[in-house]
Amino acid sequence: MDKISSIRGMPDVFEYDSNYLAELNEILSKIFFSHNLNEVNTPILEQTELFVRSTGVTSDIVNKEIYSFNDRNEQSLSLRPEGTAGVVRSIIQKKLDSSEHKLWYQGPMFRYERPQKGRFRQFNQAGVELLGFEEGSSDLEIISIVCDIFIELELEDSVLKINHLGDKETKERFLSELLKYLKTYKGELSDNDKEKLNKNPLRILDSKDIDLKEFFSKGPKIIDFLSSDQLNLLDNIQSIFGKYVEIELDSSLVRGLDYYTGLVFEAVSSNLGAQDSFLGGGRYDELSKDLGGKEMPAIGFAIGLERLNLIKKQKNIKSKKVISFVTTSSKMNALAFKIAQLLRSHNYSIRLETNFTDASLKAKLRKASKLGAKFVFIMGEEEFKSDSITVKSFDEDGYQVNMSFEEILDFYKDI
Ligand code: HAM
Question: In the 8-state DSSP scheme, what is residue 119?
Fold first, then answer.
């Protein structure tokens, strides 16, 4: 019989990758909790119309990436390509669109993109949406959450790019100049760019055409059209958070979704290759009205968990959570199992892998390293005699210390 394989771009997430993803989720949910956000869960399947009206007719998502099908009732449904639209739809449906909400979510998203490193057709996002908040302190708050993620996950070699798309009036003035400038372009616009120009001209800045990009780099910049409040916001972000995170003003950043209005931002990492953006977001003050709701200014972002995982792997960041406990002889088994049980009861958030087999110490250390263990606890002859354990760090410092049973329980509690 022929074997059945998974769908291209929708890999099974397995063992270590799964564990890493669970760990990332745990860290992120703690950060979100500490910012007083509440978790929200919306369905994976929505009416196709929701994504057409939110991500927009010029977005790649609606044009070529959405997974849509008619159900048995001939209703067009789609697998969600992102989380923001569903969250806003849900708030409107519950008639909660006149109050403030600070929400986060996590789950699978689906886009029919060409699979490559860091790009899948099913992937996981964790997202935050602050709904009902006007431009100002909520923009700073959202960047502070991004900062906490950078710090907690040690993403110091990543850059946060920011831009402001202006309000309606700024945008109109900028676009009229941009279109005037575009008239002098001698190249041929692709069909895709022509369509963008027709439906949402600002998105032309996001063109994939290298010549056109180069042409725009010498043209009018939105930053020169922003109001003093809008410029102040960009300045404030840089001065408050620039100490913790590398922030770069990028006036060509427009983002691939149609719903953005004011501040937009994207985090990129040099560890990711072509798909270097691992976090993206911005303000979307018009989305609630576009979906039939009340005026509800809002701002949010989402992170791709697989891309974060890749960064972690590239940087070889070991999981703090895995520790391997090894012995050198079977006569130590009774004591070793007792110590392992005591250790676990002191900190259930650590994965304690016991390796009390007959394999050599060298093989056990190799296995522990492969597991991504941060430390190995070794009970050899000397330790067995002296009621102690040797702790070997797998970090670059590679230190090794001997601890009494009491000391190791204290150490384990605080890892
Ligand atoms: P997005 O930039 O389309 O924004 O996606 C956010 C993140 O999801 C990306 O930075 C990337 O890490 C990840 N991602 C996107 N496509 C793929 C893919 N094919 N494979 C793997 N990872 C991927 C949004 O989705 C907005 N909803 C963010 C937002 C929330 N804006 C306001 N609120």
Answer: B
Structure tokens at 274: 């072509």
Mean pLDDT in residue range 229-251? 96
Q: With 0-12 CB in 10 A as exposed, 13-18 as middle and 19+ as buried, what is 358?
A: exposed
Sign of CA dihedral 308, 314, 320, 324: positive
Cβ(382)–Cβ(328) under 8 Å? no
Per DSSP bridges, beta strands 351-355 and 298-304 are unpaired
- Provide the pLDDT confidence category of residue 189 given band limits of 50, 70 and 90: confident
Q: Which single residue is written with the structure tokens 């190799």?
A: 366
What digits encode the pLDDT tens for the residues 294-350? 999 999 999 999 999 888 877 666 666 889 999 999 999 999 999 999 999 999 889
> What is the overall mean pLDDT for the chain?
92
What pLDDT is stored for residue 65 in this prediction?
93
Distance from Cα 124 to the centre of ligand 1, integer Å: 9
Give the mutation target among 42, 125, 275 for probing the ligand 1 site: most ligand atoms within 8 A of CB: 125
Measured CA to CA, the distance from residue 303 to residue 340 in angstroms comes to 36
Q: Is the CB of 260 under 6 A from ligand 1?
A: no
Provide the token pair at 363. 């093989």
Long-range contacts of 22-29 (CB under 8 A, 24+ apart): 23/319, 23/321, 24/126, 24/153, 24/305, 24/308, 24/309, 24/312, 25/106, 25/126, 25/305, 27/152, 27/153, 28/104, 28/106, 28/126, 28/149, 28/303, 29/104, 29/106, 29/126
List the 351-355 sheet strands across, edge first: 351-355, 322-327, 375-379, 388-393, 400-404
| Residue 318 near residue 22, CB atoms below 8 Å | no
Q: In angstroms, what is the span from residue 38 Cα to ligand 1's centroid?
A: 20
For tokens 């689906």, the residue is 110
Alpha-carbon distances, residue 189 vs 48, 183, 204 (angstroms) = 29, 11, 10
Provide the 10 A C-beta neighbour count for residue 334.
9
pTM of the model: 0.86
